[in-house]
Write a structure and sequence with these properties.
GO molecular function: argininosuccinate synthase activity; ATP binding
EC number: 6.3.4.5
Oligomer: single chain
CATH class of the largest domain: Alpha Beta
Shape: elongated
Number of domains: 3
Distance between the termini: 82 Å
Subunit structure: Homotetramer.
Organism: Actinomadura rayongensis
Keywords: Amino-acid biosynthesis, Arginine biosynthesis, ATP-binding, Cytoplasm, Ligase, Nucleotide-binding
Structural class: alpha/beta
CATH architecture of the largest domain: 3-Layer(aba) Sandwich
């Protein structure tokens, strides 16, 4: 029986060329799977027809925008997921969802091999293949760029030789990956880390230095999940999509960083994530209001580990499952409204309210009506300081 190869298909040059190339290398048939994660660009039907025209025996296109927002972006939001305290896991979140649909296609069409366009230098090869190992370990994997040293020049020559119906002339100076949660830009002149990013590489965000009126938005959360903007109930996709436009118009969410890749190298990355950065700012502040101190302190370490696991391609792992259970429990009181001012590249919290608030005006105020018994503080401070006091007395005695 010949191989059936399930290809993660984007519709671009590299994956279009991969269809006949994989058919030649394996002697099998190729099933193309394209997933809409809110990345924009061509419509799904155009992409489906191109895959078939390039030789795919089947072409599956999936509108996964709501699924991506609800089941991947919002769990990351509840974990305040920022790898290295800055990167909101734009590409890392999309890979396990693509893997899920690749596995489903393999089961439907009898696929024996899965193929992706990742190189051997990046994180995504690990994310794809670790996910495949967890969900369908029997599948073999071919990565043409890595396994056959497949370069863009070779891809262009192959496309021209085969007369494939794709444009091989367009060449961006950058490598770009984008979806609903944000946009990642790398390579080209950015590989010199002294070079500053230029304005034309940005797409999701306007120049934050340009003068404009501020935008104020009220985000409603229930159990740590956004449910409405300015009192309008919206779906997860609609919330992220609208905030991408509104926060992006204010230049919110630009990130320029040198990042520790999983494969051991440092990489310069430029990100745009307007909705993600605005939502995380709002969610963190609502947690400050509604989550008890020790739980909040511990959750911050869980959040960091959660982000590292997802960055490292371990979405489908026992530890992440257990951390999800903890986060779900920790979010049960994270409900209420947060008011954000979006302006000049920043998302600033200016108001918060919640029926589950742990903030007490009567305890916090310094004015008349203060219910905090300050007479208790003296003994508390003495007992709190006692271990350090005893240690200091010991050390001075040994000096």
């Amino acid at each position: 029986m010949s191989e059936r190869v399930v290809l993660a298909y984007s519709g671009g040059l590299d994956t279009s060329v991969a269809i006949p190339f994989l058919a030649e290398q394996t002697g099998g048939e190729v099933i193309a799977v394209a997933v809409d994660l809110g990345q924009g660009g061509e419509d799904l039907e155009t992409i489906r027809k191109r895959a078939l025209a390039c030789g795919a025996v089947e072409a599956v296109v999936i509108d996964a925008r709501e699924e991506f927002a609800a089941d991947f972006c919002f769990p990351a939001l509840r974990a305040n997921a920022l790898y290295m305290d800055r990167y909101p896991l734009v590409s890392a979140l999309s890979r396990p969802l693509i893997v899920k649909h690749l596995v489903a296609a393999a089961k439907t069409f009898g696929g024996t091999v899965v193929s992706h366009g990742c190189t051997g230098k990046g994180n995504d090869q690990v994310r794809f293949e670790a996910g495949l190992s967890a969900l369908h370990p029997e599948l073999k994997v071919i990565a043409p760029a890595r396994d056959y040293a497949w370069t863009r020049d070779k891809a262009i020559a192959f496309a021209e030789d085969k007369g494939l119906p794709i444009d091989v002339s367009a060449k961006s100076p950058y490598s770009i990956d984008q979806n609903l949660w944000g946009r990642a830009v790398e390579t080209g002149f950015l590989e010199d880390i002294w070079n500053g990013p230029v304005e034309d590489l940005y797409s999701y965000t306007a120049d934050p230095a340009e003068p404009r009126e501020a935008d104020e938005v009220v985000i409603t959360f229930k159990g740590g999940v956004p449910t409405a903007l300015d009192g309008r109930a919206l779906t997860p996709f609609q919330i992220v999509d609208e905030l991408n436009r509104r926060a992006g118009a204010q230049g919110v969410g630009r990130i320029d960083m040198v990042e520790d890749r999983l494969v051991g190298i440092k990489s310069r990355e430029v990100y745009e994530a307007p909705a993600a950065i605005a939502l995380i700012a709002a969610h963190m502040e609502l947690e400050n209001v509604t989550v008890e101190r020790d739980l909040a302190r511990f959750k911050r370490s869980v959040d960091q580990r959660w982000g590292e696991l997802v960055y490292d391609g371990l979405w489908f792992s026992p530890l992440k499952d257990s951390l999800d259970a903890f986060i779900n429990d920790a979010q049960k009181h994270v409900s209420g409204d947060v008011r954000l001012t979006l302006h000049a590249g920043r998302a600033v919290v200016t108001g918060r309210r919640s029926d589950a608030s742990l903030y007490s005006y009567d305890l916090a105020t310094y004015d008349t009506g203060d219910t905090f018994d300050q007479s208790l503080a003296k003994g508390f401070v003495e007992l709190w300081s006692l271990p350090s006091k005893i240690a200091s007395m010991r050390d001075r005695g040994q000096a």
